[in-house]
Structures are given as structure tokens and as C-alpha cells.
Design brief:
Beta-Lactamase; 17% strand; alpha+beta; single chain; transferase; seven-stranded mixed β-sheet
């Protein structure tokens, strides 16, 4: 997303952005000057202490100084490159990047000050008062000069001055030599000057803020001027009257469409340059003036129309309309004629009132100030724009003299204008008005004397336009031009500092510019380039030196094409890039960019390290993918091996609990419940491990849709209620739930899984007789819903919280409470996939609050609440149904017999080999086939394909029953054409519901 403009930000933030932009421009423009000044002072210091500093330390300090100065210059160049394309003159650093660039400049200033502070610790003797004073004067003078240069950014100035002065004072304090009087005087003067410069910097900061405010006001005023011009153009085109403008020679310059109709002139006659005399003569020739159409009458009308004062003429058209022509002289001697059909106005005052309202509306809405004064130069009226310009209400402005709003200099401007108006002349001039708050507003005034019907001057009208923005814009253009020139010079100096080799070729193919890195990377002799050779000459020289290999074997296909085309004089498209390898193994990336004039810029980049890293990354990726496949295969096998015995455990336990003929006793039911819970716990552990593997592999798919918490939360509480009773924990009624809401965007099944995990943990880790509270909170400001599960357990120590959501992390509680430590890690991954967050707030000794936040939404009709399946009632069958179960495991066959025994109308046939099952199905087609996937000899997929080859078995539904539970297994079964997929351990309720549904579908098809 792009950064916001200052005009769209709050006033304080926008002002700070303007000030930061001024600071950045000052930093960039002063980088070279600061470097030159620093080098000059370094030369003075070395001349003063010549012969006293060991050469190694001197060179080390000079290297540090050069590095800091080069860093500051490169920082300024990097800012210019980052802020905008080079051809945009008024580009600025984006608002979001300004603080980061200021920090970089200030850090560079601190490093610069530190280096100069270390100069005070160069091994020179301070026992010599002259040398000591010279050192102090140089250091203090340097600090004062740096403060002066960076007065525009006081933090940067202080970051330079602080390290320099602290290290200087530390050196003077550590020396056994007494402090020379001149040194003490220099330090005192330096402190005073630092204080003065600090005050001056604060004043400069205020002035800079005032400048930023003025620039923002200037941009707003420019927009107001453009809006005013557009409004005036609309008024000209839609004023409802004919308007014609004549120059000083009384030739037509502009008009609107109404002139031809109201004046009675043919439209073809209205052309630029037509004289007023020609128009009047045409009207006279066609009897437009009645009895006064003769030469004398026409001359009289020309005299009146061409007068230097405003006037009004009326005439009755031959068609009976009354047309009024208003004359308005222009300052340059021209005039404007307004042609108005006043027939309706004369008949009724309503038209006149409407016209007056429209004129008042124009005065109210325009951004040009209208200022009316009488002959005593006092205000008689002003429109809202004029009042805003002066910062006063209209009532405060009425009756005040115009001289109250100007200083002595601008009073003289008013005097000259008043004299012209007294002589009846209109005119325009620039003037600066003083607002009520003391600020100056630069305006241009088009002033016109006002006369009454008798021709007596009654006052004047001033049309004031705020031109402060234009003046500020002109100054900005001047500053921008200077900054652009400075940029060009800096860019030229920094070309050699680029890490890329750069070559410029003119449209004729001659090399015109290059940098030092180009010579290093291409190993081209400098004397060859000094001759400014043709590009083909450089390529031929490289080929002669075997830089490309005998048959270009060191270049890719793009490189062979580029070099071959260039040697043949064929063009290469802009943006073309290729790679080549030098004989020493260095890999160069070559890119070509063409300008509009046909010149070429070619860059050469050493990408040897990145190519090696890319190859290593590809190898690591291949290794990771192989490991991931191996892990998935292992998990699939482990899931199958664990689910197969669980199928028998849970299946027979379900059969015993559902046995109506010999129901288990209370003790037996208790033991069976424990058996089921243990099996389900083991199954949940298997599922959790598989879920973690799917998430890590990016294979877990969620269905995000509106989920009603009013349905899901009570359902989850009901599921953990038996566990809470066993542990003596109270489940409080949920808080914050209302009928019909709230709702979240989530996967209903996975959200229930997370909530059940949090509730189970709150029960397991609670105290005896403790309480678990669940609260739902709608966070309107963030558009989320927060679910909190609070317990009254021992709490979690702060140092253990970071380990809490790690897989298999038990927080040193192994054996104390059942569990594997995988639930919270899985919950965090599931919540993240649902675009939510999860966390914990805990106080040792006071319990814990686990919370999760999910995006809120409006609950749609039919939003899923995912109720748990119940054991379906037996469906009434119209006839006995046949089910064929192909399974090689005797225990699984016995289990399926027990489960389908709850459907007396079903006849179950068993086959332990796939070939046997195929033969039984062909001999007596069943109504439904239950088919294991892992069969000896041929697998379930091949059995399905063979079943479908027999016409009598094409429509028989086939359900896969398998311990393979990976997502790929289910997808493969769906693609193969299985009607459904049951994973082991088989849930009896789902099995019976599925069998009822598929057999009922077969009945319906048979009925048709």
C-alpha cells in the first residue's frame, strides 16, 4: 500500500512531516560541505601537531575519518536515489521513510563526532601550552562550525558535539599538564557559543515550522485559484445571458452562444476579430433600431458602447423581446457586453429576484474577494471570500477604512490606486493586506470605479485574488532547481562508489562513460576505454582474450545472443539480461537498458555468491521435500497400524454398550466407558499427530464460513461435562452469549476441536472443587470476537509461558496429569489457519485465562453448528437388503457383523479374499459393498475397478473401510469413485447412518 500525503494527515503530523522533509533536504545538500570542512580542519590539526604523532596511529585515525565522511556522502546519495526518480524535480522522501533517514543522518553525525573526539587522544604532548591551545581551539572551532552547519537539526548537531567535547575534556582532565589560559578561554568561549547556537537552532526550528505552514497554505491557495477559474468558466458558459468581449480596438475576442440570439446577429458572423462597428451596422441594416437605424443613430450607439465608463442600453427587438445591453470597460481599453433578455423581468419581479439570488450565490461561493468601498474609502460590503482573506466577520469589516489593513509600504500602493479610481479609471495591481491575526496576504486587485445611474462615482469595487501560493510556488521552483543541480553533481561524484560496473553507450554505439568497477569486473584495460571505443571493439577485445570461451561456453543462451547480435550490429532489446562466467569462476549478471534517444546503459553485477547460495537452497529444498515425503509415508503407515487394533477395541466396546438383548451392568458399563475413553484418547492423539504433520506439510484444508457461537459453545460444554463431574470441577454458565449471535468466521469442526482442548485443559489443571468459566466478548474496535476460558488452578510461571505452545511440551509435569503436550501447539496452528490469535494470561496461584480471537461476522441463515452424530434409529425397509463386506481380518469381520446386527433387515455376507468377494458379487449382486483397501493380492482400488466392469454392478454403491486416514488417501478414494470413506476405528453411529442413506437411495432408484 503507498504512503499518505501530508495534506491527508492531521495538522500536527502533516506539519512535522514538512519539517522533517526540510531537514532531510538540508542534510543531503550539506553532506559534501561538511566533508570538505572536516578534511580542512583535519589538515590544520595535522599541520599543528606535525612530527609528534606516530604514523600508524595517524593513518588509523585518518582512515576512520575518511570512512565516516565517505559514509555521510554515500548516505546523502542513497537518500536521493531512494526518494524518487531522478527526472522528478519536486520529489520528496516518502512520509513513512522520513524518520528512518533522519535516524541514519543522526547516527552518522554521532560517528563523526566520535572520530573527532578520538583526535583529542592522539599521542601528542599537552605540556606545550601552544600545542594544547591549538588542539582545544581546533576541536572547539570544529564543534561550533558543525553546530552552525547542522542548526537545521539540533539532535544531529548535539550528537556530533557531545562525543567530541566529552572526549576532549576527558583528555584534558587525564593529562598532568596544567590547562593553558588560552585553552581555558577557548573552552569558555566554546560553551557560550554552544549555548548561543542552541538558542539560534531553536529559533531556526520555529522559523522552519512557519515555512512549512506557509508552503501548505500556498498549495491550498493554488487549489482555490484553480477552483475559482473553473467556476468562472462555468458562469461564463451558463450565465443565462449573452456575453461578448471586445479588445481595445473593439474587435470581438470571446462570446457565448446566447449572444447571437439576444443581439439578433447570425451565428456565422460571430468570429474572432469582427469589429463592434460591423456588428452594429448589421443590426442597423436589418432595422434592429427602428427609427434610429440611420447613420446618426448608429454613430450614437457606437459612441455609447465604446465609452470608457460602464453603461446600459436597451432596445426592443422586432420579435417583441426587450434586450438590455450592459457595457463594462476593461482596464486595457476593451469592453465586455452583457446581453440580457429582460422581457420577463419587466413583466414580473420574480425574474429579477431570481437573478439577484443567482448573483448573490456567485458572490458567496467564489474564492475571489469582492470588496466594495464608498468615496470615503470605507467598506460598504464584502463577500465571504474577502472576509476570510482578512480574517474578519462581515460585521467587523463594514465601515472600516481600507488603510487599516495595510502597512506604510502598501499604503502608498493604495494611494496610487485611489487616485486612478477618482479619475474614473479601472486598474490592477499587487498589494499585501494585513490580516486580523497580523499575517500578510499577497493579493492581486482588479479595481473598478462604481457609478450610479446619473454617472456619479459612488465608490469602487475591488476583486482581490490571493496570490500567496503563486509567490511561494515560484520560490519552491527556484529552490527545487538548485537542489536538482546539486543532485546532478553528487550523482556524478558517486558513480565510482557503486558496487556494480556501469557502462554508458551513446546512440552511435560509442562508449561515453564507465566507472572503476566496470574496469575491475570486465578486466578491460583503462587505455582501451580512454580512447572511447565502440562497444563492438570492447566485445572483440574480450573475445580475443578468451573471456567468453572459444564457443561462448561460459555464457548462457541470452549472453550468446546478446554478444553475437552486438558484433553483427543488431540491436538488443531494453531490459535484456544474461549471465556469463569469467575464466576464474566469477559469475557476472549483465543487464541492458535503452533510453528514448537510443543510448544504452549496461550494468555488470558480481553474483557469484548469490548463484552459489541459490544452488545450495535448491539442494536443501530437494532434501526437505524428500524428508517430508518420508515423514508422510511413515505417518500413514503408523496411522494404519494403530487404527487397526483400535477399530476392534472401540468397535466391540460400542457393541457391548449398545447391546439391547444383554445390556451391561453398572460396573460393566463403567469399565466399558473407561475403555471407550481410553481408546478415544489414543485416537485423538493419533489424529492430533496427523494434524500436526498436515499443518507442517501445508496439507490441512479448512472450510472457513460463519459459525454461530450460540450453538457451538453449549455443545462443547456438554461434551466435557462428564469429565468435569469426574474431577469435581464446576462448569459455570457461559457469559456473553445471546440468541442469534455472536458469530465468527472459522471452520466449525476445527474451532470445536480447539475449544474442547482449552476446556479439557482447564478441567485437568484445575483445583479440587474449582470452577471453569467461559466468556464471549465482542471487540467492536478490532472487528473480532474473543473467547476466554478461565480456570482456578495453580497458574503458570512467567518463564514457562514461552514454552507453553510448543509441541510435546509438558512444563515438567510428566505423569502428574494425563496428556502429551501436543494440544496447545495444534490449537495455535489451527487458530492461525483461521486467521485468528491465541494466548494466555496467567498468575501463579490464581489460575489461568486462555483466550483466542477470531474475525467476527454477521450470522447467515443456515450457518453450521456441527452437532455431534447420535446413534440413528433403524430405518423401515421395504425388503431385505444384502450387504457384501470384503475384509481379510477376522476381528474386523466379527465387528462389522455386530454393528450391522442393529439393522435386522440387512443380510451381511463376508469375503476374506478380494477374488472371493468379486465372485460373490457377480454371482449375486448386493445392494451395498463395504470394501477394505489393504487386501492381500490386489488392493481395494483394483477391486472397485473390476466391480465396475460388470454391468449389473455399475450402480451398486461401494464404501471404502480402511485404516488409511491421510488426506491423500481420502482424495484418492474420492477420485476413484467410492461412494464414501469410513476410517477405522469405525464409528457405529456414522456407519449405520451411512448404510441407511445409501440403501434408502437404492430403494428410491428401484422405485423409479
Amino acid at each position: 500500500m503507498p504512503s499518505p500525503q501530508p495534506s491527508s494527515l492531521p495538522a500536527g503530523v502533516a506539519l512535522q512531516a514538512e519539517v522533517d522533509a526540510l531537514r532531510l533536504r538540508a542534510h543531503a545538500s550539506g553532506a559534501r560541505l561538511a566533508a570538505v570542512a572536516s578534511l580542512a580542519v583535519a589538515g590544520l590539526l595535522l599541520w599543528t601537531a606535525q612530527g609528534q604523532i606516530p604514523l600508524p596511529r595517524l593513518l588509523a585515525w585518518l582512515a576512520a575519518l575518511a570512512g565516516v565522511l565517505l559514509g555521510r556522502v554515500l548516505l546523502a546519495a542513497a537518500q536521493r536515489r531512494a526518494q524518487a526518480p531522478a527526472d522528478v524535480a519536486d520529489a520528496a522522501v516518502p512520509l513513512a521513510d522520513q524518520p528512518r533517514w533522519l535516524r541514519r543522518y543522526r547516527l552518522s553525525a554521532a560517528a563523526h563526532g566520535l572520530v573527532w573526539g578520538l583526535a583529542a587522544w592522539l599521542p601528542v604532548s599537552l605540556a606545550d601550552p601552544t600545542l594544547q591551545s591549538s588542539l582545544v581551539f581546533v576541536m572547539v572551532g570544529l564543534v561550533i562550525a558543525a553546530l552552525t552547519l547542522t542548526m537545521f537539526d539540533q539532535p544531529a548537531a548535539l550528537l556530533f558535539a557531545g562525543p567530541s567535547l566529552v572526549l576532549l575534556l576527558a583528555r584534558l582532565g587525564s593529562s598532568s599538564a596544567p590547562l593553558a589560559p588560552t585553552s581555558a578561554l577557548a573552552l569558555v568561549m566554546g560553551v557560550l557559543l554552544l549555548a548561543i547556537l542552541t538558542l539560534a537552532g531553536r529559533r531556526a526550528e520555529r522559523e522552519r515550522r512557519h515555512l512549512a505552514l506557509a508552503q501548505r497554505a500556498g498549495r491550498a491557495s493554488a487549489q482555490h485559484v484553480r477552483d475559482t477559474q473553473a467556476l468562472l468558466q462555468q458562469v461564463f458558459d451558463h450565465a443565462g445571458l449573452g456575453i461578448s468581449v471586445f479588445d481595445r480596438d473593439k474587435r470581438l475576442r470571446a462570446w457565448n452562444d446566447q449572444v447571437a440570439d439576444l443581439a439578433g446577429l447570425p451565428p456565422a458572423m460571430l468570429q474572432p476579430g469582427v469589429t463592434l462597428d460591423t456588428c452594429v451596422r448589421h443590426l442597423a441594416d436589418h432595422g434592429a433600431f427602428g427609427p434610429d437605424s440611420g447613420a446618426e443613430g448608429m454613430a450614437q450607439r457606437l459612441h455609447v458602447l465604446g465609452a470608457a465608463t460602464p453603461g446600459v442600453l436597451r432596445r426592443r427587438r422586432p420579435d417583441g423581446r426587450l434586450v438590455e445591453v450592459r457595457r463594462n470597460p476593461l482596464p486595457d481599453g476593451g469592453l465586455v457586453l452583457f446581453h440580457v433578455d429582460i422581457t420577463e423581468r419587466e413583466a414580473t419581479r420574480r425574474a429579477a429576484d431570481e437573478q439577484q439570488r443567482m448573483l448573490a450565490l456567485v458572490l458567496e461561493r467564489t474564492e475571489q474577494g469582492f470588496w466594495y468601498i464608498d468615496n470615503d474609502l470605507r467598506t460598504t460590503d464584502a463577500n465571504p471570500a474577502m472576509c476570510r482573506m482578512l480574517g474578519l466577520e462581515r460585521s467587523q469589516l463594514l465601515g472600516r477604512s481600507i488603510y487599516e489593513f495595510v502597512d506604510a509600504e502598501n499604503r502608498a500602493v493604495f494611494d496610487r490606486g485611489v487616485a486612478l479610481r477618482a479619475a474614473g479609471q479601472a486598474g490592477g495591481y499587487e498589494i499585501a493586506l494585513t490580516r486580523a491575526d497580523g499575517r500578510l496576504v499577497h493579493c492581486f486587485n482588479n479595481a473598478t470605479p462604481v457609478f450610479d445611474a446619473a454617472g456619479r462615482k459612488t465608490g469602487a469595487l475591488g476583486l482581490f485574488s490571493d496570490i500567496s501560493a503563486q509567490r511561494a510556488a515560484a520560490e519552491q521552483v527556484r529552490q527545487a532547481s538548485a537542489a536538482l543541480a546539486q543532485k546532478s553533481r553528487v550523482l556524478a561524484l558517486t558513480l565510482d562508489s557503486l558496487v556494480q560496473g556501469v557502462l554508458n553507450v551513446d546512440p552511435e554505439g560509442r562508449c561515453t562513460a564507465w566507472n572503476r568497477r566496470f574496469l575491475e569486473l570486465l578486466r578491460v584495460p583503462a587505455d582501451l576505454m580512454d580512447r572511447r571505443p565502440q562497444l563492438v571493439e570492447v566485445l572483440a577485445w574480450q573475445r580475443s582474450q578468451d573471456e567468453f570461451g572459444a564457443q561462448f561456453e561460459r555464457m548462457d543462451d541470452g549472453g550468446r545472443f546478446s554478444v553475437t547480435s552486438a558484433l553483427r550490429g543488431m540491436p538488443v532489446t531494453s531490459g535484456h539480461r544474461y549471465r556469463r562466467t569469467r575464466p576464474d569462476g566469477t559469475v557476472l549478471d549483465v543487464a541492458s537498458y535503452f533510453a528514448d534517444d537510443g543510448s544504452l546503459v549496461r550494468t555488470f553485477t558480481d553474483v557469484t555468491a548469490s548463484v552459489a547460495a541459490e544452488q545450495a537452497l535448491i539442494a536443501a529444498r530437494d532434501e526437505a521435500e524428500a524428508a517430508n515425503r518420508a515423514k508422510s509415508e511413515f505417518l500413514s503407515r503408523m496411522s494404519h497400524e494403530l487404527r487397526t487394533p483400535l477399530n476392534a477395541i472401540l468397535g466391540f466396546a460400542q457393541l457391548l454398550l449398545a447391546d439391547r438383548d444383554e445390556p451391561p451392568g453398572a460396573g460393566q458399563r463403567q469399565r466399558l466407558d473407561a475403555l471407550v475413553r481410553g481408546g478415544q484418547h489414543l485416537l485423538a492423539l493419533i489424529n492430533d499427530v496427523l494434524d500436526v504433520a498436515r499443518i507442517e506439510g501445508g496439507n490441512l484444508q479448512l472450510t472457513l464460513q460463519p459459525v454461530s457461537l450460540a450453538c457451538l459453545v453449549p455443545d462443547a460444554l456438554a461434551l466435557v461435562q462428564p469429565m468435569a463431574q469426574d474431577r469435581g470441577v464446576v462448569l459455570a454458565a457461559p457469559e456473553g452469549l445471546q440468541p442469534g449471535g455472536p458469530a465468527v468466521v472459522a471452520d466449525a469442526t476445527r474451532l470445536r476441536q480447539v475449544l474442547l482442548n482449552l476446556l479439557s485443559n482447564a478441567i485437568k489443571f484445575n483445583r479440587e472443587g474449582g470452577e471453569v468459566r467461559l466468556r464471549v466478548i465482542a471487540l467492536a474496535e478490532s472487528g473480532c470476537v474473543r473467547l476466554e476460558v478461565a480456570d482456578q488452578g495453580a497458574g503458570i510461571a512467567p518463564e514457562q509461558v514461552p514454552r507453553l505452545f510448543q509441541a510435546f511440551e509438558r512444563l515438567d509435569m510428566d505423569g502428574a496429569v494425563e496428556g502429551t503436550g501436543i494440544g496447545l501447539a495444534l490449537s495455535r496452528s489451527l487458530v492461525a489457519l483461521m486467521h485468528g490469535t491465541i494466548g494466555v494470561d496467567s498468575t501463579p496461584g490464581q489460575g489461568s485465562v486462555f483466550w483466542l480471537q477470531l474475525p467476527a461476522c454477521s450470522l447467515l441463515a443456515g450457518a453450521p453448528d456441527s452437532p455431534l452424530p447420535a446413534l440413528p434409529a433403524p430405518a423401515h425397509a421395504s425388503r431385505a437388503r444384502s450387504v457384501l463386506y470384503i475384509e481379510d481380518n477376522d476381528v474386523n469381520q466379527l465387528l462389522m457383523e455386530g454393528m450391522l446386527a442393529h439393522r435386522p433387515g440387512i443380510s451381511l455376507r463376508l469375503a476374506d479374499l478380494p477374488e472371493t468377494g468379486l465372485a460373490m458379487a457377480v454371482a449375486e449382486p448386493p445392494d451395498l459393498v463395504l470394501l477394505d483397501i489393504q487386501l492381500p493380492g490386489i488392493d481395494g482400488f483394483e477391486v472397485l475397478r473390476r466391480l465396475r466392469r460388470h454391468p449389473g454392478l455399475v450402480q451398486v454403491p461401494v464404501v471404502a473401510v480402511s485404516a488409511n486416514a491421510m488426506p491423500d488417501d481420502l482424495a484418492q478414494a474420492r477420485d476413484a469413485g467410492f461412494a464414501d470413506y469410513l476410517t477405522k476405528p469405525v464409528d457405529m453411529a456414522r456407519l449405520l447412518a451411512l448404510v441407511d442413506r445409501l440403501l434408502a437411495g437404492g430403494d428410491a432408484q428401484a422405485g423409479r
